[in-house]
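Entry 12.
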Amino acid sequence: MLLLAALLSATLSSGNATPPFELPPAPRAPLNPRLFSFSSYIGAVVNLTFDDASVLAAIDLLQPGSLRYPGGSVANSWNITNGRWVDNETNIYAQRTRAYPPGTFTPSKYMSGLGKRLRAAPIWNLNLMTLTPAQQLEQLDVLQADGVPVHYLELGNEIVGGCAKPDYLQTIIPVVKKARTLFPQAKIAIIGYWYSYAQGLPDWWTCCTELAKYRDYFDAITVHQYAPSNQTILLYPPDQWRTATLGTAWALLRYHATIVHWAMINTTQGEHSLPLSLS
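Predicted 3D structure (tokens):
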């Protein structure tokens, strides 16, 4: 997963495209390394260990600022306590992972391998979907016991979250309470996957209004926006592909930020600033 915000920076700095908007003047500052981040999928999907020579060579070449452990969709079926897919998962990736010794793909192994070559700590994506409540909490105990840096926590990936699935919001409460105790400085993001009438998901305005009731339990909302598509890009000549992609990223960022911010300040007392993780 490449953050679209990273594309914004890369395109502007390349000098090969003219952005379709004007950025407000701002003082120069170091680039946040998390603007260039991926879901790694190493171990869970890619059948290589965290200290494999080819993995480390790829990290050195790409120089990502951060990585997302264990990845995106896999997080909903992964147990970071033992570094494996959940026991009832039988897909080919789970079978390959189990062929390695126990503990091969845990957070501590992650940090002793590719993790120590990152410029910012990984984003730890917890499983709140297929683990028992006790196991969900145990994930935090493992992160603490392993002594890995915990700056960002993500609570699942792309399931129907928020107001469209109220039990998800109830599920996060004990996890967040424990996370706030063990890692008081960590930022916590919940799933933002809504606005699909075909799937019975309500619109952003409705969801954000419901989410405001749980405002104390998260610091950010993850928004996965797969746009523009290849079909959309192909409507433009090749020399405009970067500009079209950049313009889409900027428009989506402003759109989601505006809606979430509006919902928060209109349903709670006082004004709240809610960051988005747009990917």
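Annotation: Residues 1-21, 267-279 have pLDDT under 50 and may be disordered. Residues 241-267 form the longest helix (27 residues).
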